[in-house]
User: What shape does this take?
Amino acid sequence: MTTKRSIFEDVPAESSPRGRPQGEGPGPGLIDRGTGRGRRATRIWLFILFAMVVVMIAVGGLTRLTDSGLSITEWRPVSGALPPMSIEAWQVEFDKYRATPEYRLQNQGMSMAEFQFIYWWEWGHRQLGRAIGLVWALGLGLLWATGRIPRDWTGRLLLLGALGGAQGAVGWWMVSSGLEGSMLDVASYRLATHLGLAFVILGVIAWFAFKLGRQSGDLLQARRHGEAKLFGMSTGLMHFAFLQILLGALVAGIDAGRTYTDWPLMAGEFLPPDPLDLAPVWRNFFENEGLVQFLHRMAGYLLFIYGLVVWRRSRSSGNDGTRRAFDMMAGMMVVQVLLGIATVIAAAPWHLGLLHQLGAVTLWVLILRARFLSRYPQRQNLRGKGATA
Assistant: This one.
């Protein structure tokens, strides 16, 4: 004799068609058949690239904080992989650096040991870029040779290589701006372009990894339950966060974070003194330390407010996984604001500057994950429990 079940009681897997729990949709169909190993292998490779890009961003930040970025004055993608191997070779590199404005105007009298310190930082930065390119090429080649590239993913994976190559070219375009004239550092807008592209690459890798973490059929079904309004709002938040990242790069490029160290005011006033004293006026938005820091602060406040609005909207989601994703995003946003304030008050020491930059990386990825789950919500049973990735 069978017993009556509560309408909220879970049905055992063996009771549902094809041995799958009810409410999870159909099992893998033709679209996913035979792709499991390829998707897992590709995702692992993307995770490796993701970790390397995060390290690259951190090393790039330290390279800037140690004023090491202009120590190598040539772009040699292949031959530059080998550092100077003799005293004579080191002297040649040092002589090239002594011809730069940074040496003449800021580091006059630098010793060989001091030069080697900044040289190794920049060499390591470039070497890591080469390593990322090598891991991309070898990984893609191996996936292709073993037939494990997921269906319709070849173009997307090639896009990553194209973005990486563009990043190398942008990096040299940035460095070259500080090798002539009277520039003591690289142009701030070129630094912002370089860092912005790094975050684009990181975001693309993360998005691809999110999609490969679930079968194509599952994503198609999940999208029917997506929350269009929340997805649109989180897309706006993503764009706003990217703008704030660019403004942060402008602050870093001219060391504006070390100029006004009081908070919440700037030199005792709401507006910094002489915010438009450079001519032509547009230069102030890239080179005026007070105005650039002011814009970064104001954008940070607005981003935080809008982030809370988006988080509040996520409270109405019926999906536990989606709400948790936005909870994590909002929590990290609070941490990042506090890190930013601490960095300003302490005059941007390297350790706080690096933490603030890594905080931006973490927040960026959490925004992308929350946005992803608003479009492709996780499966869950009728109780709202047991959501699966």
In short: Residues 81 and 304 are 42 Å apart (CA to CA). The longest helix spans residues 112-145. The radius of gyration is 25 Å.
